[in-house]
Design brief:
This protein is an alpha/beta fold and about 375 residues long. It folds into two domains: about 270 residues, Rossmann fold; about 80 residues, formyl-coa transferase, domain 3 (2-Layer Sandwich). Helices cover about 40% and strands about 10% of the residues. A hairpin with a 3-residue loop joins strand 9 and strand 10. Helix 9 packs across helix 10.
Length: about 375
């Protein structure tokens, strides 16, 4: 939904203090860096949908009652069945607005023997096979990663599903709206589809390799001058090897083929490491690239903030995010000629736009104040105090 918001959609985040988005409150208070990143450019409607009045107001909003713009899309990723139990499943929104596109994203999907599982990134990675492969072959416990890659990928696929649904409806492919499902584990398996196909042909062929790959050798991360400084070098072809061998100082005609080098990877990696340890990661990168060998420095998060390439492309975005302050964010997913620039604004406070959205429904000030007083609607407490 953030992706849709940045490219022109009016995205309203539905939330409540009775059951807040845990990413919003994970560090205490009502704003965190993770929430600021994932919910930027949206509006926030604080509403208690566990009440009859709250549900009715939300469905009225989806239907465009009182002059409000009708919902084109509803996105949800609560646990399987939660929206139906609340009276806010696809059938409820479709009854209010037959043209609505609903996109649902759950860990294991809405059907199948594991459909009732609750989970987040770590659950998605292990069940989707990513944790098994994101490892070294000789360690007892899987290393894993702090990346929440499956969340980001599934979210972008959800945006694609939403746009496809809206276009299908507008072009007459569908008479009405539809309910799309983006299963997070399936998305994780899907990005490794080539490995799944290989395993189906040769059982046991897909297994952890650390940073090595069957595609070439030497291939991996190598230590450089300084503490915890590394460079990635990928010698893909036999034509790239002579250039790397000259840099490293290896003169051995028996290593001319990938097959031969794959059989002596330990020896080769030690030889490459002896060379890289004497230079900075940037110096190694420059030397390799000048010789036609793919390479790149391992950057930390702090180094990315100072990365001249990202800065030159204008990718990093600074926003003053209340109440945290000025933060640096990743930029939009893509840019395109002929399109307006992505609209990137700070993430909203919980209920920051409640009153203006309620007014769009045709509610007068007295009615809105009454709903707030009774806990049906919720407003941004920090803004109210100021």
């Amino acid at each position: 939904s953030r992706m849709l918001a940045e490219y022109g959609a009016d995205v309203i985040k539905i939330e409540s203090r009775t059951y807040p988005d845990f990413i919003r409150v994970i560090l205490g208070g009502e704003m965190s860096p993770s929430f600021a990143s994932s919910s930027r450019s949206k509006r926030s409607l604080g509403i208690n949908v566990k009440t009859d009045e709250g549900r009715r107001l939300l469905l009225d909003l989806a239907a465009g009652s009182g002059g409000a713009a009708r919902f084109d899309v509803v996105v949800e990723n609560g646990s399987t069945g939660v929206m139906d139990d609340l009276g806010l499943g696809y059938q409820h929104f479709a009854a209010a607005n037959p043209d609505v596109i609903m996109v649902s994203s759950q860990l294991m999907g809405s059907s199948g023997p594991w459909s009732d599982w609750k989970g987040y990134g770590p659950n998605t990675q292990v069940t989707g096979g990513m944790t098994h492969l994101w490892d070294y072959p000789d360690v007892e416990r899987p290393s894993g990663s702090q990346s929440i890659f499956p969340h980001h990928w599934a979210g972008r696929m959800g945006a694609l599903a939403a746009v496809a649904g809206v276009l299908g409806r507008r072009r007459g492919v569908m008479a009405r709206g539809c309910h799309s499902e983006v299963c997070q584990v399936e998305q994780t398996v899907g990005v490794m589809g080539d490995l799944l196909a290989r395993e189906s042909l040769q059982a046991g062929s897909v297994k952890p390799q650390g940073n090595r790959r069957d595609l070439g050798a030497p291939w991996g991360l190598f230590p450089c001058e300084g503490e915890d400084q590394w460079v990635a070098i990928c010698c893909r072809t036999d034509s790239e090897w002579p250039a790397l061998a000259e840099l490293v100082g290896v003169d051995d005609p028996t290593l001319e083929t990938v097959e031969a080098r794959r059989g002596r990877e330990d020896e080769l990696e030690e030889a490459v490491s002896e060379w890289t340890r004497t230079l900075s990661k940037h110096a190694v990168t420059e030397a390799c690239l000048a010789a036609g060998v793919p390479a790149g420095p391992m950057l930390t998060s702090s180094q990315q903030l100072q990365d001249p390439h990202l800065a030159a492309r204008g990718y990093l975005v600074e926003l003053d995010q209340p109440p945290i302050g000025v933060m640096t964010f990743e930029g939009p997913a893509f840019s395109a000629t002929g399109m307006v620039d992505a609209d990137i604004r700070p993430a909203p406070g919980l209920g920051q736009h409640t009153q203006e959205i309620a007014a769009e429904l045709g509610l007068d000030e007295a009615a809105i104040d009454d709903l707030i007083a009774r806990g049906i609607l919720e407003i941004d407490l920090l803004a109210a105090e100021s």
